[in-house]
Structure formats: structure tokens, C-alpha cells
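Q: what does this look like with adenosine-5'-triphosphate bound?
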Amino acid sequence: MSEEKSKVDMEKIVSLCKRRGFIFPSSEIYGGLSSCWDYGPLGVELKRNVRNAWWRAVVQERDDVVGIDASILMHPQAWVASGHVEGFSDPLVECKNCHLRWRADQLSGDKCAECGGELTEPKMFNLMFKTFMGPVEDDANIVYLRPETAQGIFVNFENVRSAMRKKLPFGIAQIGKSFRNEITTGNFIFRTREFEQMEIEYFVKPGTDDEWFDYWVKERFNWYLNLGIKKEVLRLRQHGKEELAHYAKDCYDIEYLFPMGWSELEGVANRGDFDLTQHAKHSGKGLDYFDEETNERYVPYVIEPSAGVDRSVLAFLVDAYDEDVAEGETRVVLRLHRDLAPIKVAVLPLSRNEKLVPLAREVYTEVRRHFMAQYDDAQSIGRRYRRQDEAGTPFCVTIDFQSLEDKQVTIRERDGMAQIRLPLKDMVATLQAKLRGETFATQPTWSAKAVGA
Ligand code: ATP
């Protein structure tokens, strides 16, 4: 991390997330549970949209990547093979005075950073959560909560290859929960003990790995830009030799300028043939590949783009957060990319007047058939716009008294607060076009026909 920081305060993000129902502290009525967070009604939509955007980019729109959903609990030998039982640990020191624990490699001096107390000698602390399978709690029944989703992919390499008749190069993608008993957590959902990952293992012929590595670094970097992350707050950082895992040939972190400074959002690594070789050795099952074109047999190399769902959610929230002035007041607005916005369209009757309600409900019924939508009739229209701006809702549809006469509604756009009035019959097609990325400014008077209705 560096001294440079995002202009956005983490407190503002945490408070907005609570206020608008994105993210709450876990078990809050019991005082919360350290580093655990619950996604609320808007957060769950945002998170789902992040996952969907990733899945769409890496699975749906590609011929060479397929998805899986492996179990969280795996055969304990898998974690011996991967090196996690032996090596997945951090050096830990404990303050003899206040008993706080610290990562020895993250402390600047040799005293407790909290109270200045004396510290114990460093002890290696394994980051995997352990539990027991079945009723007997002994060593023979230990299983681990997976600390990464990657190993569920490696152990399924041959299953997927043969079932899907895949030829190299091809990838397997997975999204799922991972668990690490991190010593230092914090910065909201940036580092937690339970989190979600989006990982691809992309298998290639040895010798083509450098090329594919470059390809995936660029591909993944652009994914964030395409979803609206600003270029000046996203960067690549290559790992130095001392930082690389012993088996890794190369690794780049995609870093984002978070409120606490530049930090890892995603890692892209060239892992060589380490993982498949290890699993072949420990399982006794061959995991090599027969190349029909060259009549060769070899263990594929793997390129691994490994991203965090929660970290991406945080980056998208920080990046989208903005304050401007509307009607003489400060307006908080989340300029989320339309694909990520939790609610796409809010339907707002001008008031609760009983004459307006039937048409407003009718419009809402129609809108929600197509989009994640919300109906809001509480408080003044200005306040409701502000609420939707804070929630990142790209479009509001307003029904007023004139709508009853002319069957027209107003669509109001979040970012520039521009409004257009259009016939009700064109509303859905227009919203669909806008949610595909066309803007008010370029084509203010589309007809339903022009947008393909
Ligand atoms: P860090 O050093 O920041 O803890 P890492 O290098 O250990 O991360 P990886 O093992 O490369 O992380 O995991 C891949 C991705 O999974 C990370 O880039 C991050 O987005 C996510 N991730 C890893 N650990 C956590 C965590 N404790 N909380 C939230 N996300 C995490």
C-alpha cells in the first residue's frame, strides 16, 4: 500500500451501504462479528450483478471457458497436494501485555503497535479453517473450509476435459465462497475471513503460456474499465522475484486506489504445471494431456486470474460514489454502471393521490416484467429522486396527472438528471435501449420502432 489514497472516505461508503441497505455488520444486534458482513437487499443485487458480469465475460461470451461449482469441503489430501496444509501460513506474534496478535511481517518495529508491549517469537499460523466431518472430532476426520476456489477446479480438470471434450487451450471458471482465518482483517469488505472469489484456471500448452499470461492480464484489466472503473485509479503491479511463489513464473496484481491506498483487486499468475503435477502425484491419477495434433503428452501450464467478488463490489462502490449539487443541495449519487446497478428502474407516482395509483401500479407491473424495479411513493418526489440516486438507480419513471390524460410518462436519468417525456407504449423499449448503453444526449427522440420494439 502507498500513501496515495482515494478521494472517497471509507466512512461515507460504509454509512451509505448501511443507510440504503447494501451491507450491514453481521449479527449486528449481538454487537457484530469481527470482519463479517451481511449483504442487504441492494447489496445482494449488486453482488449478483458483479458475478453475472464476470460470468458473462469469461464463460457465456467465450467458447474456450466453461464453468463449474465445486464443493467447499474437499478431500483433505487436496490441501496437502496444493501446499496449503504445510505452507499456507503467516508469521504471527502476540503481545505479552494486551494479547493482541499481529502479523510479524507487517509490523514496523519489534513492539506491540497497540500498547508498545513486548512481543512473543513469531509462530507460523495456518490460515485454513478446520472442522470435522461426521460425529467424531479427531484428527482422522479433519476437513478444511476451502481457502480458495482454485483447487476445486484442478481436481476436476480431467472430469471437465473429458465430459466437455475440450482441447487446449481451455479454461474452467468458478465463483464461490472461500474462508481464511486472516490475522489482520479490516477496511470494510476488503479483507474478511469469509469472502467470495471468481477464479479461472486457463490450461495451455507449455511454451504458449507467456502469451496467454499477457492476454489474460489485459483481458481482466479491461473488464474493470468496461464496467466503468476510472483508468486513473486502476493499475498493474508486477510481482518482484522475492514476492513470487516458488512455482509461479510471473504474477501481476490488478490494483485499485481504495480509500486506504493502492491495494490488490485481482491477481493474475502463471502457475506453470505446479498444481496438476501435485494433484497427479498425491492422487495417483494421471492429469497429463494428450495433444492429438502433435502426438505429445504433457502436463498443461495454467494461467490463473483470481478476483474477489467482495473486493470488486467495494471498488465499484468507491468508484461510483460522487457528490454534486442538485436544486441547491448536495446530492449523493452512485454512478454505478448500468449492468451493476441493483435497481434498474424506479417507478414513482407524483403523489399518493388515488387517481394516480392505478396507472402507476400498472406501469410498475409492466416495468418489473423486464427489469429489477422498485415502486416508491413515500415522501416528496425530490426526496425519492435523491434516494434512488444514492442507490445508483439509473432511471426513474414518473407518472403525473397529465399521464392520465395523454398516456405519457417522464423518464429521468440519474447521472445528468435529464428528463424526457414519451408515450407509455414506448417506455419499455426505450428503457431497454438505454440499459444497453445508449444515451439521452445522442438520441433524445427515439421512437419505439427505432429501438427495435
Ligand atoms: P491479500 O494479500 O490482499 O490478502 P492475496 O494475495 O492473499 O490477497 P489471493 O490469494 O491472490 O489473495 O486471492 C485472490 C483474490 O481473492 C484477491 O485478489 C482478492 O480479491 C480475494 N481475496 C483474497 N483474500 C481475501 C480476503 N481475506 N477477503 C476478501 N477478498 C479476498
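Residues 441-453 have pLDDT under 50 and may be disordered. Residues 180, 182, 191-192, 195, 197, 264-267, 306-308, 310-311 surround adenosine-5'-triphosphate (CB under 6 Å).
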